[in-house]
Amino acid sequence: MIRKLRYIAFIIIFLTGLSSCRFTTDIHPYLHHSFTIDPRPSELRFDLIGNMIIMKVRIDDDDSLYNFLFDTGAFTIIDKSLADDLGIIPEKTTIVRGSAGSPGFTGLTRIDKMSVGETEVFSVGAGIIDLSGIATTLGIHLHGIIGNNFFDGFTITWNYVSETFRIDTVHDPVEDGIVFSFRQDLLTSNAPRISTLIDKVTAVDMIFDTGFDGLISLPANLIGRLQYDTTRLLKATGVMTGGLFGNSPADWLIKPRYLQLGPMKLKDVVCTSNHMDVGLIGGAFLKMTETTIVYPERKLIMRPLKNFGVKQSYFGTGIGGYKDPSGNFIISGIWPGSPAEKAGLKPGDEITEVNDTPVKERHEMWFWYINTDKEVNPLKLKIVRRGASEELLLIHKEHLLKNIYEPTEEENDE
Hints:
It is a single chain. By secondary structure, this protein is mainly beta. The protein has 8 helices and 36 strands. A hairpin with a 4-residue loop joins strand 27 and strand 28.
């Protein structure tokens, strides 16, 4: 049974790289698949890790059920070790860039048949990538990522609260929520893409991306145009995020005055940064809605749930980090002005215990959960500073980028 986590504000290392890979060559032949003559709908349950949806997938005629991450921002991927076990070999190799901007190589292949519930799809294009690092972060055996090219042609609906997922072959859903018309780009794996405005003037494309655990992520190349001061922009010391093929060169917390997402207008929402040319609308945002994607009509419908509401500050210790091959948790980055910085923590320090629990016994997701959970405050950390003796620190979590400015008359009128 996958351990359920209630809320994770920002997944730091690896997880932002699950989504939105940009291919540098044309993968068009691998984006098409074949249905059965009469494709069957399905209703199934999924597991949650933070805001990440894990569903069971069958491959070919094997009755084994494999853990695949549902990712609307990605092309379908099969873990290299599983591909080797099943005798699936690449037909060609291409270059792909993760959300941190680093390039890597992936094999491209076709899987004869993939099944989710009762729904079978044939000749599914897939990348072959080593996902062991991400699996370690999640604390499960991750066999692959199921992306847009599997669901293209279907209508899908999912609900994070009931943990239910439906695949439909009839494409006339009731438009009883917030309706977005989207377009698709082959180079970003046909992820649903919309045009948005920041502060009413700066245009940026955003994709709906269930493979990104966070709320909203904006392209770092926007920062120079936004011209924010430190009440709206923080640059991390060290590394806070990473992708499939490497760490981010720099990370920011960004708090736009206004963010127009299609028909939705958001104000003072704290966003992370990425090193792509598109923004990401992630699982932490989508979990507040029941969401339907009608792929044939290129429509996405959000039905807000009772807990709908976006956060206007970052809450936590301000620590970014990762587990090294020996299982040690190493601090890789710190947000300025955070409790971690005030306590003197620096990149390279090691956390050995959190609230008397050895970190080696837990996966990274557990740390990110407890790092930002309002109900677990303060945290008692046992720290080794660059090989020196251990010391105990009591760190009280705080809010960063709080609303400490006076709004203008124009802002009050909005």
